[in-house]
Amino acid sequence: MGRANKVILAYSGGVDTSVCIPYLKEEWGVQDVITLAADLGQGEELGPIQKKALDSGALESLVENGQESFVVDYAFPAIRANALYENRYPLATALARPLIAKMLVEAAEKYGADAVAHGCTGKGNDQVRFDVSIAALNPSIKVLAPAREWGMSREETIAYGEKFGIPTPVKKSSPFSIDRNLLGRSIEAGPLEDPMTEPPEEIFVMTKAIAETPNEPEYVEIGFEKGTPVTLNGNALGPVELITQLNEIVGNHGVGRIDMIENRVVGIKSREIYESPALLVLIQAHRDLESLTLTADVTQYKRNIEESYANLIYQGLWYSPLKGALDAFINQTQERVSGVVRVKLFKGNAMIVGRRSENSIYAPSLATYTSEDTFDHKAAEGFIYIWGLPTRVWSEKMRG
Q: 44-101: per-residue pLDDT in tens?
């Protein structure tokens, strides 16, 4: 096809992305394929992946650590926005895509490639996230998606790879499709495609079964500075360390599982299981701290845009003008969102049981029912008369 001379391929080490290497060269006339594996804390051995890419015909095999940027530039803004897709999913997988797209585009510039490629199929969300993000970062670069076009079944894909020396994958004992990074895991396919089937315990790695969790509650205090988490139990931690430690603490109590029917960007519904212990609890704690430090009107207005923000991330519009405008609003609201939130973890539950902030606008002297009360009760009567006036006038008219 002669679509490109040099291509940077997003590489995971799986069947599809490995077969993309000979396929791009043989079928589409690409001269050089350079693979890029992004280390976002998926925990798998990236050394063997690097070798596998070279064995599959890659000119060069890059592995880049993006963990710090992943947390600081993608997870933390989502926490400040309390971003939950369909009010449930904290976007652990979706947040990785704009970063990988950025790494692809930067590698293309560095190595003089005229195209980037990914192994996404035509059914998922990730193709949308990659294609749109890449176009936003460099509208002139070509995006190739061989797996979207080759029309091969999994068996045919494996057979194609074997022709070019790509070893047959060890027979998958697991029928599940799993994506993992520092922020969480997404699990789909196999028996999970029946919405009535309960997820088997074996699919969970980051969260314990309730029966296995401690019989005593554990408390964790999360410190925020301008909406960004910075401490655990009073200890200042780096971004990656904070997420890693909190995943461990929270997951140990069975907190962080989600089982949902989700509306994909391409219009189909899919059953998704997620584990995202730290991210879920951080959003919960952050939202609570906002209730202590933001005025009612700001909190309520911000709630309205949080759903839009989550949708933008899910739909691949991280680099869109609207996202940038919403960030400006959100960052302005976070100036005073500093303080500590106390969370009680027990048997699959994360309960917020305390919060404090130097910027708190909770006034005990106004809230109390004791003799310390400074609220002017007599002022309420006139306020209620004015407040209820439109309703009273309407009622009188309705009654004729």
A: 777 788 889 999 999 999 999 999 999 999 999 999 999 999 999 999 999 999 999 9
For residue 23, give its domain range. Answer: 6-66+94-163
Task: Indicate whether 158 belongs to any domain.
Answer: yes
Q: Is residue 174 flagged as an active site residue? A: no
Q: Which of 61, 80, 126, 357 is catalytic?
A: 126
Query: What's the pLDDT tens digit per position in 32-52?
Result: 999 999 999 987 777 788 889
Known catalytic residue at 56:
no
56 among the known binding-site residues? no
Q: The pTM is what?
A: 0.93
Which among 139, 163, 187 is the end of a domain?
163
**Residue 16 annotated in active site:** yes
Q: 279 pLDDT band (50/70/90 cuts)?
A: very high
Q: Specify whether 371 is catalytic.
A: no
CA distances to 34, 133, 359 from 124, rounded to whole Å, are: 24, 15, 43
Going by C-alpha positions, the residue among 201, 216, 300, 301 that lies closest to residue 253 is: 216
How many CB atoms lie under 10 A from the CB of residue 240?
A: 18
- State which amino acid sits at residue 395: S
Q: Tell me if 185 is assigned to a ligand binding site.
A: no
